[in-house]
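ARCHIVE CARD
Drawer: 12
Card no.: 0347
Subject: one protein chain, sequence and derived structure
Cross-reference: see card 0346
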Amino acid sequence: MTPDNASLSEEHEKTDVVSRPASRRSWRSWIFALAVLGAALLLQGIAKRAPHFVEHYYSRTVFPRFGHALSFFNGWFSFSLAEILVVGLIGFVVGGVVYQTLRVLQTPRRAGAVIGTSLLTLLWGLSSALMLFLLLWGLNYHREPLGKSLGLAKRTATDDQIEALSRSIINEVNANYQLSHEGGSGGSLNRTRLYGEIEDAYHNVPLLTGLCGGGYARPKPIRLSGIMSWFGISGIYMPFTGEANFNSLQPDFDLPYVIAHEKAHQCGVAREDEANFIAFLVCSNSPDPFVRYSGYLNSLRVVSALRVAGPERYRNVVGTLGAGPRADLTARSAFWARYQGRGMVLGHRINNSYLRANNVPGGTRSYSEDVALIISYYLQNMEKADR
């Protein structure tokens, strides 16, 4: 063997020695990342089959500690940490894609290694995020149904009962609209006062005692609310920061209900219909007429159940809705109509897929399933009154 050949052989042996440990490290990284992903999926599967365990040992014991700790931290900031996190993550992903693409173009021979490293980083990110999501909040999707926790047995209402309930809701809408517009207030509240009214209202509903205590950070408006509107989002809860965020551009009369809804998520109520029901309870029991108006206006979905009794009956009840609330409903439709487009369709599809992946078979249709809870709540109160 010539000196040159010997040199080449030694170099090859060194390279082989170095590459083998690196290769083993790479495989270990893949295995660990897949193990984290598998553990997260296994945890989710077990939780789905053990709602009683999740309710008593996670949702009412472990989760509140996480929620209060996150609230204590994010409460130091007046702006939304969730918004910064999302914008930063998008920037990181876009920057990473550009950087890795340039690396592939500059060194085509290393394209496989670069792509493999990128996929491994993505796997680590997704598996870690899923596990963190479940531990910080996501397991609440698998807790016991709210109706069971609150002692609301599912009841079937007659057409007459639904009509009576519909008339009651419309009467409340009309009355609280008038009260909230007295003295030229224009039907709105100072934001700081609004936050306080909703927080107080959470403590004014005996039915919610023990479900959502105090100590959670106040809701935060999103600065990029225009983008939220484009995606058709009125509010969002961020499990990784423990923040209840809302779209600050939407009509004022919807804000109390939306904020109460997101605070329900903040308290560990994950399913949308249940958060809607709690928002209705909280707002309708508020001492402030503007907050009550928002709650009752957003519960008008109950009236749609009257269509089963007949179109004439439905029209007669809807005809009692006042001109002011009708104008607000028109203003709401006009606001969201400005953002109709592909972004809203995309936002709907993403949300639908997200909900289905988290034990909500109805997806986005579940938002309207609070009607059954509201009916059960009213029928239960009617039964108590008749005793």
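Annotation on reverse: The CA atoms of residues 250 and 335 lie 7 Å apart. The mean pLDDT is 87.
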